[in-house]
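Appendix B. Chain record.
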Amino acid sequence: MDAIRPDHPAARPSCPSTPPIAEGVPRDLCTDCGISRTADPKRCGRACQFIKPDYAALEAQVHGRARDPERTDEIFFGPFRRMLRASLVRPLDGAQWSGIATRLAERLLETGAVDAVLTMAPDPDDRWRPVPVLVTRAEGMAACRGMRMGYAPLLALLEPARARGYRRLAVIGIPCQVYALRALEAELGFDKLYVIGTPCSDNTTTERFHDFLALLADDPETIVYLEFRADYHVELRFADGRVTAIPFLQLPISRLPPDFFPLTCRTCVDYTNVLSDITVGYMAGQGEQWLVVRNARGEELLDLLGSEVRTAAPGSAGRRRGPVRGFLANVARAAGGLPLRRMPDWVRPIVGWLMPRIGPRGLEFARARVEMKAVETVLHLRRNRPRRLRTMVPAHVWALVAPYGLMPAEDERPRRGTTDA
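Structure tokens predicted for this chain:
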């Protein structure tokens, strides 16, 4: 990708900047994290989570230990010190939720804890297209607020950051980017590295995302905000101030092409960004944000917010087993090439009304989503890349799907020494 145009606001010194980025090297099962665009693209072989991930080893490297089976929620969410519901006392304008991830980065820059923040900003020609940027002043983070959809080679800017003399770096990234970052952390040579992770479930190309928006509204070009909320609705905001909430069950998912979500995203085993210092998401927030503080550096990050953030213990309600079983049945049909089972139209409003009231909420909602992703991973790999099951699926994922009757065959079991056993 070329550098941002000189006339674009991001080219000003106080705003984010994007140095020139090399072309990527085509890979199988690739989300273009950026490593293939660096001086040594062969590093993908030992850095990619879609080849031979070793979560136990990297969790021990980053957090001092792997996930503890005695702490049940660590099987779902990875190692953590504590989990919180949280929101900024004064939400940031233009933020996706209240703006905690943005504010953490601002505070790192304000306090001089880092030289730069590596994150995403919108493309000057398309608000939904992500562009990797280096931010060196706190006010520059305002341009990075909100959600992007699409692939962007975030880690391609690690080498330009070092070339500029940035030795202390913060990175805001999604799981596939953070895994590669951690796998190469020791050889990158940064004096200090803060990692703020966001959960990620399913990505697609920006072009495909525009096709999805066109199914949601007659004027999709005016949509300025989209969020999948934990109350089983998608919220849309429009340029003229309108706000619409669409129940999940009324989304036009069946009208999307089978490859709308790539196989990488359908076989990702790290929804909650387990290798970040702090995960900032929404799944267990019940209308607020959900923080997973994973290690001492994560505590240090949260401390930067002081009284700016309001926190409480996360709640949990409802039961996940029924929805996960229903999801498994639909994915099994889709993975086998059969059409999804569609709920009768007259039933949809009833179920849509019931789910926010009796369905899984809070931590139970988050557990359900993690189990669904685990189910999806196993079924789609069995269908499309059966030889990858042994190296791509860690033991803790098999533990998540076991209650639903999915057990590894002998040739599917994790190889000893390459995944957590």
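Further analysis of this model is presented in Appendix C.
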